[in-house]
Amino acid sequence: MLTVAEEIKITVIIDNYYDGLLMPGANFNRHRFLKPSGGEIARLAPHISAEHGFGCHIEVAAGGQKSALLMDFGVSENGAANNIKALGLDLSVVGAAVLSHGHYDHFGGLENVMRLAGKKLPLYVGSETFSGRCITLPGMRVDLGRLDPQRVEAAGCEIREINISEEILPGVLALGPIPRVTDFEQGSPILAVERDGGIVQDDFPGEINLAFNTGSGLVILTACAHNGIVNIVRRAVELTGVDKIHAILGGFHLSGTPAEKIEKTVDALAGMGLDQIVPMHCTGFDALKLFSERMPAQFTLYSAGTRYVYC
Q1: How confident is the model at residue 39 (pLDDT cuts 50, 70, 90)?
Q2: What confidence score (pLDDT) does residue 37 get?
Q3: Is residue 225 within 8 Å of residue 234, measured between CB atoms?
Q4: Nearest to 53 by CA among 224, 171, 243, 256
Q5: DSSP letters for 31-56
Q6: Are 285 and 191 in contact (CB under 8 A)?
Q7: Which CATH number fits domain 5-310: 3.40.50.720, 2.40.10.10, 3.50.50.60, 3.60.15.10?
Q8: pLDDT tens-digit readout, 110-150
Q9: How far apart are the C-alpha atoms of 64 and 5, rounded to whole Å?
Q10: Distances (CA, A) of 94 to 56, 114, 118
Q11: pTM score of the predicted model
Q12: What are the φ and ψ backbone dihedral angles of 265, each rounded to 5 degrees?
């Protein structure tokens, strides 16, 4: 049984969008461009950047213990590390890291973030994280690169591959393989992976998503949701035995997908009775707009530097 968390803090280190004028909300604080100084003159806050990438810092109090971990590292070499410094995040308390999957927009800043941490950390990965990946188009193949495990280890990571659901820290459940049970979440036909000497459609068996159990229900964090956000939520409910969904955050990979799939996804999540939804990263404008219209009370606009608190 997943350890119940007394408090969860999720700080978005880097994401596709940043707005320094957004106001805070009931359970989240924004990184704003003005920093209170306590006097009549405010100072500009340290600048943070946005990019087509994802990364976050997570703090969890569960089972009488406090722990912290990192999940993903953005696309550029320096973006995530620079934002960590600008946000004043303390990496000395971080005890582990997770790389959700082997796409370039999630591992680009890994080495510099690890150097900033200045210590050896376990890095949880799933199967095929270090396999080559590409986009297949008619008459063309776009190379998406490959993460080098030797460079990852040299940067200070102890690689730990997990292929089943596992509580990697107290209160932090890494979801294992996600069964694709919905008829509208069957993956992208153009995303491919090197496997058994060939190039095949990527079904992302090793993609890692995280789930937390609070007194208010499940909090589910996904980086890209390549296996489908509805499939992921259903799997989290099945594994934990907790039916109530408190919040869902992360990339839902709906950008550029057909309107029918977006409609079905939004309808399915809207019917789950959740309290908050924060679509990020690869969700895309069309889906963001529809979530905001169909779930106005639950929808929160994402922005890099935002800290969400659940208890």
Answers
A1: low
A2: 65
A3: no
A4: 224
A5: --SEE--SSSS-EEPPP----S--EE
A6: no
A7: 3.60.15.10
A8: 999 999 999 999 999 999 999 999 999 999 999 999 999 99
A9: 9
A10: 12, 11, 11
A11: 0.95
A12: -65, -50
Provide the residue ranges of all domains of the chain, joining segments of one domain with +: 5-310
Asked if 161 contacts 127 with a C-beta cutoff of 8 angstroms, the reply is yes
CA distance 257 to 184: 11
**Could you report the per-residue pLDDT of 159-190, keeping only the tens digit for each?**
999 999 999 999 999 999 999 999 999 999 99
> Which runs of E-coded beta strand occur in the chain?
5-14, 28-29, 34-35, 43-44, 55-62, 65-71, 94-98, 121-125, 133-137, 140-145, 157-161, 166-169, 172-175, 191-195, 198-201, 209-214, 217-222, 245-251, 276-280, 307-310
CA–CA separation, 77 and 92 (whole Å) = 21
The three-state (H, E, C) secondary structure of 64-110, written as one string: CEEEEEEECCCCCCCHHHHHHHHHCCCHHHEEEEECCCCCHHHHCCH
What length does the chain have? 311
271 has pLDDT over 90: yes
Tokens read off for 272:
């789950």
* Range of weakest confidence among 27-41, 151-165, 229-243: 27-41
Phi/psi of residue 253, nearest 5 degrees: 50, 50
Tokens of 138: 């008619």
Contact 116, 91 (CB under 8 A): yes
